[in-house]
Amino acid sequence: MSETPLTQASAHLRHGANIGQSLTRHEGALKVTGQARYAADHHPAGMLHAVLAVSSIARGRVIALDVAAAKAHPGVVDVMTPAHKPPLAQDPDEKTHPFMFRLDVLQNDRVRYPNQPIAVVIAETLEAATEGAVLLAPRYETEPARTDFPAGAHFTPALVGVADPAEAHHGDVEAGLAGAARRLEAIYETPAQYHNPMEPHGIVAAWEGDTLFIDTPSQGLAMAQARIAGLFGIPPAAVHIRSPYIGGGFGSKGVFSGPQVLGIMAARLVGRPVKLVLRRGQMFGPVGHRAPTRQSFRLGADNAGALTAIGHHTVTASSQHDDFFEPAGGVSHTLYASPAIATTYEAVRLDTGTPLFMRAPGKAAGSIALESAIDEMAHACAMDPLAFRLKNYAEVEPMSGKPFSSKALRACYAQGAERFGWAKRPLAPRQMRDAAGMLVGWGMGTATFPALMFQAQARAVLRADGTGVVETGAQDMGQGAWTALGQIAADSLALDPDRVEFRAGSSDLPDAGIAGGSAHTATAGMAIHGAGADVIARLAELAMGDERSPLHGAGNAGVIARAGRLFRRDDESRSESYVAILARAGIPAIEGHGKSATDPAAQAAYAMHAHGAVFAEVTVDPDLGQLRVTRLVGAFAAGRIINPRMVQSQYYGGMVWGLSFALHEQAVIDPRSGRPMNANLGEYHVPVNADLPSIEAILVEEHDAHVNALGIKGVGEIGITGTAGAIANAVWHATGMRARRFPITLDKLIGPQDN
Amino acid sequence: MSLSLSLTVNGIARTLDLADPRVTLLDLLRDRLHLTGTKKGCDRGQCGACTILLDGRRINSCLALAISHDGADILTIEGVAQGDQLHPVQAAFIAHDGLQCGYCTPGQIMSAIGLLREAQTGDDPERVREAMSGNLCRCGAYAGITAAVLDAQRSMADAGRAHAA
Amino acid sequence: MNRFDYARPATIAEAVALAAEPGATYLAGGTNLLDLMKGDLVRPARLVDVTHIPGLDAIEPLADGGVRIGALVRNADLAHDADFARRFPAIAEALLAGASAQLRNAATAGGNLLQRTRCAYFYDAASACNKRTPGAGCDARGGETRMQAVLGWSEHCIATHPSDFCVPLVAFDAIVEIEGPKGRRECPLEHFHRLPGDTPERESDLAPGEMITAVRLPGAAAQFAGHARYLKVRDRTSYAFAIVSAAAALRLDGETIVEARLALGSVAAKPWRAHAAEALLAGAQANEANFRRAAEAALAEARPAGANGYKIELARRVVRRAFILAHAGTPARIQALPASPFATGALRHV
Q1: Which chain B residue is nearest to residue C6, measuring alpha carbons?
Q2: CATH for C5-52?
Q3: CB of A673 within 8 Å of any CB in chain C?
Q4: Superfamily per CATH, domain C225-343
Q5: Are A152 and A349 in contact (CB under 8 A)?
Q6: What is the pLDDT of residues B104-121, one digit of tens each?
Q7: Which end of chain A, N or C, is surrounded by fewer C-beta atoms within 10 Å?
Q8: How does pLDDT run across A366-393, given as a tens digit for each residue?
């Protein structure tokens, strides 16, 4: 049952019984039966298969392609090359806003990174297209690849991340260090990582005249629609993208990629529908990655263990041709109280695809380094890592001085530590063994992620039969948008979920903003909330203005909506059903609209972040160095929880990513060719089931009156932060060995080598 | 050259003419039979998304040449439920939220069904985790997956006992 | 993948005749071959599909207490054969430590012997590789070498053989049965795989057109059943190739070692039998000091092929640990995480 108290202000806080319920995944049955149709599952009549040929060099030019050999292969229909392709209305190297990235769509023969598309083979079958791409046998004019930090000249980027300053100061770090009783200087390195959602990027594109129908995964439908419209010179309304199920995105499907554009171009070229799906190895180039970082920390602390300075300098890398600089310093702005904080950046340009936001951009890489440094400093101060963190607890956001809109981090520390049994941890490393004689270590990390909001719109309709339809082009990549937004939608109309049809996943619907930044539930949710409230307000007006309604004249007392009826607030014996109100008015439906956006006043007044504490146990073989994370406990506070089941899964997923960051993931780049040598899922390791025997996530209660009217913060990315550092710190606690280059692989732990 | 191929897919006998011997079972299912529940994640046997049961055993269909399996009996995710009645493994995946994006899910479920048929793990979660390690889940739903497999095993055993009694 | 001619012989003789064609390749489980074909690393003109030949998938006990494993026996079937696992537990453990359940259901015994290296440069069609193109050079030299060989490598090739199964097989004197254009013959597994020298493209003793029909284990191998282990160190808890592995087995008289067997995996282009270490242990006491000496002996000739010197020390420790585990006794049942350091029970020495 749902209840909706109403006032004149549609943004007034209200929520019904659906929000907060642990409903199972809305589309679960479709997904477990194989009926959920992902992009590449579509097969329109007459469809051809397109396969990319990609560059094997990092830098240079394509000087020859054996197009004739490819075309001679039975089944090959056409080969799209820089010399043979449909025109674009816009230069793919043009950038008109910060979310627009340069694309490689055969605009010339230039190669600027390995695995860059250099041709597209279109054939009757996938087998023929695949072999056709091989038969192109490209020849190159190769220039030396620039692959590592020393190879390029360092420079200071103008901005990092989407729009963060590359330099930020609070207080005097040099003075803080000079006056410190203890100082720590340490450099931490994180490697290039690739998103690798299980679903490779793919597209099925079909033109009908100048109207385009696309099945493709997108975390940002409206942005993708605008990008495509611009490139092909057609109105956005002529671009119809369906993306109801995204097989994982993690940021890589946040901006429309070159290969997806190539699928549309291929369909244009041959005048038939085309399916183009990246091979796994082709995911290591044109669809983004997390850039490597080298982070130098300078920490100072006084005799009591209070930080006196945090200096956090990040060196990172973008591509030669575009800008995305991993904003690793951001975590140092918010996590620990210090009278002096400075974050600075340098960057180099490498011959890689352009980096992109990857789950917890900046925060993940920054967190593992900061949490390691904090742990090292706690040890230097002979303090328990939790006690040290509490000693340096930030009551206000250290960098800005703003109060937090809410911050239940102390409760996270307490509940997580209690659940984990942290109090029994010996201070010194290498003190614990299990029954088999394995080294055991415990470590912790603080988790944090900003509570963001973007812009979105939604539409709600209440129909004469008392059912509702709520629409917004939201994107579900596994985070549970269908479920959680459906719950918000039902509450917005004060109806049970089975009375409300929630529509999402299409560019034909109102813009729901990007599914990223852990902001989708808040952003799309607030638009839905507004749309439903708009409907109810119109309905209430209708009823209260009608002499025949029991609600007539409710006036300032107002009405509340609950389970398909409006009730007079001051006398609940007077009520009327939606159906009755609409029937009497003779109106087939009432439509309402909602919008959401950040509240600049609240932004100016408050620092808004979700927080958490993660505790890790690792077991390390003392001789062989092989290690296993035997236990993870996270406690997170992220405002109102719409669906605890979905949220727990999001935390788990983030924590598994944290494990992956600490121990597994890295692109191995050949220093001569620049090629990623492990561009596959056998050797680009992500955790398998056996890597994680025990995981728990505690949902810590937190109420936030400022982030948005629903009180929602994000949950999708915070789990990585904290976790990665907690595991690194546990490895140190187990072994006494501090790994500062991630991932921590066993060769770094086997100790002195005799050879 | 056209090659004739007979298969039983989800209980239905099919005879196909393959114009191309290169077709894998995965691409045969997806592109020729339009059974797209079986997913392609890596096409190299490194992720498990394409897991099907071949003559009752779980395999990576991406590394199986279709023509080599003439006469085989194939079960895919589309053939697991009985009408609207979900298989206990499917129901348990929903109950334990052993999925997020859902892309690896058909492979996970077919692998779990194969695992239960193999009957090597018992109710030892560690053995289940090891036996499910051929199925990557990038969303990190492993805890729910393991719980779902154990739960389904229990419910199937209970149902079996009830049936016997 | 190139187009190829597909042939499905019904008999071994027919298969051998079909495979006489230049460019012909045998297809069994396909778990490695198809991957190589998809990567454009192997382009066979003809696939001779041996999977429909009857009689090649039997596990037959032999009169001497040994066993004959048909070339088409699937890895999972062999590992889960109760009698086989009881008498050759280290081999079952190695099988179950390899790949994934799905792959083990498809991969065959014969195919396992013939699997190609996982060297990233071999697998990268754009890299120079003397295995793929004799004389092209070896881009692995001077490249990423973390996983590469430390024993028996040459300037021409530093790749390793990735098999788990072959490691205990070579320790237990397995024999490979072969049929070919010139008839039937046998080859000890120890001599089946070749070190690279200056012909890294020649990976095995098989002549063109020859096929493996079976792998045979002598009865003597079963005498180690009480003290036989496989240990595999890897970057993930499961579903990862070995960095270093070892099969270690002991025949004991009280605490005296009557006979020891040792082979290492992922350290060389072949499963590496360590005879010197075995000789050192014969007649010695089963204790850590002697296992340490054996480990030293096993790696005496090792040298880094780049930034992989850590593998030498790691291999010594793996050998030592594998013997400690073998000495402690084969567990009644293969542990939950086969061949993993995390499933080995109490360490008596750390």
Answers
A1: B21
A2: 3.30.43.10
A3: yes
A4: CO dehydrogenase flavoprotein, C-terminal domain (3.30.390.50)
A5: yes
A6: 999 999 999 999 999 999
A7: N
A8: 999 999 999 999 999 999 999 999 999 9
Tell whether A45 lies on the interface with B, counting CB pairs under 8 A: no
pLDDT given for residue A5 in this prediction: 41
Residue A322 lies in a domain: no
The domain boundary residue, chosen from A230, A250, A283 = A283
Q: Which chain C residues are closer than 8 Å to B63 by Cβ?
A: 30-31, 34-35, 103, 106
Asked if A37 has any chain B CB less than 8 Å from its own CB, the reply is yes
Q: Say whether A619 and C321 touch across the interface (CB within 8 A).
A: no
Q: Is the pLDDT of residue A12 over 60?
A: no
The domains of chain C are located at 5-52, 225-343
* Boundaries of domain holding A565: 3-36+454-597
Helix (H) or strand (E) segment spanning residue A619: strand A609-620
Bond before C271 cis per omega within 30 degrees: no
Tokens of A217: 């995964």
Average pLDDT of the residues of chain A: 95
Q: How far apart are the first and last CA of chain A?
A: 71
Q: A746-755, B33-42, B115-124, C114-123: lowest mean pLDDT where?
A: A746-755
Q: Which chains touch C (3 or more CB pairs under 8 A)?
A: A, B
CA neighbor of B20 nearest in space, from A754, A363, A177, A129: A129
Same domain, A446 and A460: no
Residues of chain C neighbouring A130 (CB-CB closer than 8 A): 1, 38
| Backbone φ, ψ for residue B38 (5° rounding) | -75, 130
d(CA A128, CA A111): 25
- What is the rounded CA–CA span in Å between residue A93 and residue A693? 47
pLDDT 10s digits, A214-238: 999 999 999 999 999 999 999 999 9
Work out the average pLDDT over A276-281.
98
Cα–Cα dist C328/B6, whole Å = 52
Locate the chain A residue with the closest alpha carbon to B93: A32
On whether the CB atoms of residues A546 and A559 are closer than 8 A, the answer is: no
- Which residue in A631, A620, A738 sits closest to A379, CA to CA? A738
Do residues A202 and A63 both lie within one domain? yes
CB contact under 8 A, A125 and B100: no
Chain B residues whose beta carbon lies within 8 Å of the beta carbon of residue A125: 20, 31
Mean pLDDT of B82-93: 97
pTM: 0.97
CB distance A232 to A172 below 8 Å = no
- Least Cα distance to B128 among B144, B105, B107 occurs for B144
Other Cβ atoms less than 10 A from the Cβ of A445: the count is: 33
Quote the DSSP letter at residue A639. Answer: B
Of A29, A41, A653, the CB nearest to B100: A653
Q: What is the pLDDT of residues B75-86, one digit of tens each?
A: 999 999 999 999
With beta carbons less than 8 A apart as the criterion, state whether A171 and A338 touch: yes
Going along chain B from its start, the domains and CATH numbers come out as: 3-79 (3.10.20.30), 88-164 (1.10.150.120)
Closest approach of A147 to chain C, Cα-based (Å): 13
C51 contacts B124? CB cut-off 8 A: no
Tokens for A513? Answer: 């903003």
Q: Identify whether A165 is part of a domain.
A: no
Contact B133 C237 (CB under 8 A): yes
* Closest Cα in chain A to C314: A624
The verdict on A614 and A719 lying in the same domain is yes
Which band of pLDDT confidence, cut at 50, 70 and 90, is reported for residue A488?
very high
Name the region of C108 (left: φ>0; alpha: ψ -120 to 50; beta: rest): beta
Give SS3 for A293: strand
Residue of chain C whose Cα is closest to the Cα of B44: C35
ipTM above 0.90 for this complex: yes
Same domain, A552 and A566: yes
